[in-house]
Amino acid sequence: MGVFLCCLLALLVSSCSAGAGASAAGERCVRQGKAAYAPSLSPLPQGSGVCGYGAMAAEINGGFLAAGGPRQHRGGLGCGRCFQMRCRDARLCSSRGVRVVLTDFHRSNRTDFLLGGPAFAGLAKPGVAHELKRLDALSVEYKRIPCDYKDKNLSVLVEEGSKSPSNLVVKFLYQGGQTDILAVDVAPVGSSEWRFMTRVHGPVWRTDRAPAGPLQFRAVVTGGYDGKWVWAEREVLPAGWRPGQVYDTGVRIADVARDGCQRCVGGAASAAALDWK
Ligand SMILES: *[C@@H]1O[C@H](CO)[C@@H](O)[C@H](O)[C@H]1NC(C)=O
Ligand SMILES: *[C@@H]1O[C@H](CO)[C@@H](O)[C@H](O)[C@H]1NC(C)=O
User: Fold this and answer.
1) Higher pLDDT, 199 or 105
2) Which Gene3D superfamilies match (predicted)?
3) Does 85 lie in the same domain as 130?
4) Does residue 107 lie within any of the structural domains?
């Protein structure tokens, strides 16, 4: 496994010169698209979406939630990614726009994003959100931004259905920065007997061979072209871990995608070129 991950990292670091970094470069670019209002995308359990954040979605980003279209899904990697977007009607739209987190996906070709109530209202200038909601699909520009969970460390939710001791399914919460988790290992605290976990979907990872706790974790995290290990070398899960509980890893991820070698294409501006604060 170790060898495999080293290769993976080498591959990631070299992908720029190989010209395979289009998606990462795209993350620095402002894109044009459509967004529509989705009343059902509420921060409630029934609106929790395919990423499976459940009732926690409400907490994740102050309830500023979005469902991404096919382009954002990326095999579930898109779960938990953060975007800033603004609409373009100078009469109705605020220039700052809104910051949303993806908690769900949709299949419609007509919009890139469906926005829940708070997020959609956040696009509007004060007092005109109701006018905006009447429009069918808004033209928006958007860019991926680092997620910023001010007072939260990366945390692990032990999923219902996990069976102590060996059957462990975890979901990562509060993954900050502009990063994707590409691999996860688990080991007993104080040991180096790492066992890999397998992605179930999006932020959810599982193993049927979990060692007895207490348990530590490590993950390969990428931001743009770079990959690196993130270690939580301390007790994350206690020996008596329980389904439904959230455990703090003590680690904060704040990496931002590095500048790549590819330019923004199709008339898209570099995110850095836009003053969007
Ligand atoms: C979306 O577009 C794809 C490819 O262009 C097409 O195959 C699919 O049927 C479209 N889906 C809908 C819901 O229109
Ligand atoms: C985050 O982890 C650090 C240890 O790395 C800890 O001191 C801090 O209290 C944690 N923060 C929260 C909000 O739990």
Assistant:
1) 199
2) Expansin, cellulose-binding-like domain, RlpA-like domain
3) yes
4) yes
- Per-residue pLDDT tens over the stretch 14-67: 343 333 334 444 566 888 999 998 877 654 444 446 787 766 666 777 778 888
Give the binding-site residues of ligand 2, using a 6 Å CB cut-off: 151-153, 248, 250
pLDDT at residue 146 is higher than 80: yes
Residue-range definition of the domain harbouring residue 134 = 31-144
The answer on 172 and 115 residing in a single domain is no
The number of CA neighbours under 13 Å toward the Cβ of 247 is: 23
- Total of domains in the chain: 2
For the Cβ of 109 lying below 6 angstroms from any atom of ligand 1, the answer is yes
Say whether pLDDT at 246 is over 90: yes
| Spacing, Cα 17 to ligand 2 middle (Å) | 38
Minimum-distance ligand to the CA of 252?
Answer: 2
Residues 116 and 168 in one domain: no
Reference 253, options 173, 162, 191, 158; nearest CA is 173
The alpha carbon torsion through 264, 269, 270, 274 (nearest 10 deg) reads -170
In-domain check, residue 113: yes
Ligand that lies nearest to the alpha carbon of residue 106, given by its number in the listed order: 1
Residue of 248, 251, 252, 253 with the most ligand 2 atoms within 8 Å of its CB, for mutation: 248
Query: pLDDT per residue over 206-219, tens digit each?
Result: 999 999 989 999 99
Same structural domain, 37 and 130: yes
The structure's pTM equals 0.79
Backbone angles phi, psi at 134, to 5 degrees: -80, -20
What is the CATH number for 118? Answer: 2.40.40.10
Question: Domain for residue 19, yes or no?
Answer: no
Q: Ligand 2 center to residue 214 CA distance, Å?
A: 18
Same domain, 165 and 139: no
Q: Is 267 left (phi over 0), alpha (psi -120 to 50) or beta?
A: left
pLDDT higher than 80, residue 90: yes
Distance 248 CA to ligand 1 centre (A): 41
Confidence (pLDDT) at 272: 52
